[in-house]
Design goal:
The protein is an all-alpha fold and 150 residues long. It is built from eight helices and no strands. It is globular, with a radius of gyration of 15 Å. It has a single domain, classed as TerB-like (Orthogonal Bundle), CATH 1.10.3680.10. Helix content is 67%, strand content 0%.
């Protein structure tokens, strides 16, 4: 599915004046996928493709590229979202999906997702359900390739 910036804002229930919220969302994704100390090439590719699919502006892409995730605490960059709400759950899902792009979901990335969940008010049962969803989506994608090819 392809989204333009207006669809992205509608999907995440934000308005144009909430661009700082979008940037915080993107910074949080980068912080989580870098939690193991590095961002693998496949994770970078996945994050860049995600931003392209969402038609993130060049200004925001540059801001994300320039953002040094090693110098800040997650608490300082997490967007203010409704505690436990769908936006918080989507952020966690997106982070898990991108973190797994290199074929390895590092312990530190998992811990970062758990920390983000706690800060975003997403309870452990809901987090587990989101993790299960990501695992099922990954399994379905692999099955589709195995059965039907690319």
């Amino acid at each position: 599915m392809i989204y333009d910036i207006h669809s992205l804002m509608k999907r995440y229930d934000i308005t144009p004046e909430d661009e700082p919220l979008v940037l915080d969302y993107l910074k949080a994704l980068k912080w989580i996928i870098g939690a193991d100390g590095e961002i693998a090439e496949a994770e970078w590719d996945a994050l860049m493709k995600w931003m392209q699919r969402m038609h993130v502006s060049e200004t925001l892409v540059k801001a994300v590229l320039d953002f040094d995730f090693r110098t800040v605490k997650l608490e300082a960059i997490l967007p203010e979202l409704k505690p436990g709400g769908f936006q918080a759950r989507r952020l966690l899902r997106d982070a898990m999906e991108i973190a797994r792009a290199d074929g390895y979901y590092a312990r530190e990335e998992h811990a970062a997702v758990q920390k983000a969940a706690a800060l975003l008010g997403v309870d452990k049962d809901t987090l587990h359900a989101v993790e299960s969803l990501v695992e099922m989506e990954e399994a379905i994608a692999k099955m589709k390739v195995a059965l039907l090819g690319r």
